[in-house]
From TrEMBL:
Family matches, as Pfam families: BLH_phosphatase (PF04273)
Protein name (database record): TIGR01244 family phosphatase
Provenance organism: Phenylobacterium soli
Superkingdom per UniProt: Bacteria
GO molecular function: hydrolase activity
Residues of the Beta-lactamase hydrolase-like protein phosphatase-like domain: 3-110
């Protein structure tokens, strides 16, 4: 079941997607998928390789930036670089979508892409509370 949560016109986040959801993502117009979930976190989740193969078959770019707990500065930087260079719109996912939106939001705060208050409002609109991760 797809649960793509629009954050901006350029990015949406989602809880864990299945291989079948990749085709739905392509049909919804996404051009890039960023997987923020480490492989093996749950035995029932599809592997990153399975999602990558489905993404490539659907004509989507795929990146894997696995985040355990809170994102590291390197993961934030990598997410920001991928987002800046990727074809939009982007779909980022993890177990619940929280690590994806936090990592993206921190990259946007660092780059000046959005203010802290804008990011908190965007997170709220997508169903996430970013006041803590963004220093609130």
């Amino acid at each position: 079941m797809t649960d793509f949560r629009r954050v901006t016109d350029d990015i949406s986040v989602s809880p864990q997607i299945a291989v079948a959801d990749v085709e739905a993502a392509a049909a919804a117009g996404f051009k890039t998928i960023i997987n923020n979930r480490p492989d093996g976190e749950d035995p029932s989740q599809p592997s990153g390789h399975e999602i990558e193969a489905a993404a490539r078959a659907a004509g989507l770019a795929y990146f894997h930036v696995p985040v355990r707990g809170g994102p590291t500065p390197e993961q934030v930087e990598t997410m920001g670089r991928i987002f800046a260079e990727a074809q939009h719109p982007v779909l980022a996912f993890c177990r619940s979508g929280t690590r994806s939106i936090v990592t993206w939001s921190l990259s946007q705060a660092l780059s000046g892409g959005h203010s802290r208050d804008e990011l908190i409002a965007l997170g709220h609109g997508a169903g996430y509370d970013l006041s803590g991760p963004l220093g609130g």
